[in-house]
Amino acid sequence: MSKEKNEKTQEQQNIDDELKNSKASEADTAKSHGEILKQQIIEGQETYDKSPVSILLSSLTAGLEIGFSYLLICTLYFFLEGKVSEDTIIKSLSLVYPIGFIMIILGQSILFTEQTSLLTLPVLNKKRSLASLLRLWGLVILGNLIGGYLIAFLLVWFGPQLGIFDLKTIEKIAVHVTDYHGSVIFVSAILAGWLMGLLSWLVAASKDTLSRILIIYIITAVLAFTGLHHSIVGNVEVFSGLISSPKIILVEYLSFISLALLGNALGGAFFVALLKYRAFVYDVKG
């Protein structure tokens, strides 16, 4: 047992040494796998070191800011309705969907799906415990959801008052998001979490703001165009329907948000954090 423990300790030391030796690339060369992983682990640990109040406020800010994506989604839907087909409208929403994500990620607010794989990496690297990860996830989700509720109440009132969309638009979007079997929403959310974890990885790999904006836009536009379920945007979409339409009931909202959050978490933690980390570990072993 002691021998096995020593082997695991030595393996972890080798991984840490390899990460420590990963130096920053020159400005004109791509970052290596080790460099990106090291940056992600450091950024993840910095989030763990923040105070709970700071994390809650930052995640609440992200929940509010994602509302700008929803504002544009509703406005564009209302603007195009009756001018083009329903299918065309739904696909066109991918043009404005990324805006809130760009604000959040460049502004460094804490968004659950973008931070999922980032916060998992220090646990895989044995720098943080699983319990601390779950506590942090819970805090981030709480802030994101509360921010989403607040912006939903504001936009449900504000949109019709300004005449940029109406309650029927809110209802149609909410029904479109939830009109799937639970298993479909769950698998869809896993794929969305995978893409969001990959987004975090690609942003870390990029070297300038313009390329980061392009990466954020491409990945989140893919989410919208394919209709994959993102828990935090979906929270605003479905909760807005819940408070303004009889077609969305509380059980439906709770089912959606539970499946979307779980799917997003699995997608980001497994397909990005675990696989990227294990790929590096096997490279070190080799």
UniProtKB/TrEMBL annotation:
Keywords: Membrane, Transmembrane, Transmembrane helix. It is a multi-pass membrane protein. Signal peptide: none annotated. It is found in: Membrane. The chain crosses the membrane at residues 55-80, 92-112, 133-160, 180-202, 214-233, 253-275. The keyword Membrane applies. Gene3D superfamilies: Glycerol uptake facilitator protein. InterPro entries: Aquaporin-like, For/NO2_transpt. Residues 1-32 are annotated as: Disordered. Residues 1-10, 17-32 have a biased composition (Basic and acidic residues). This is Formate transporter.
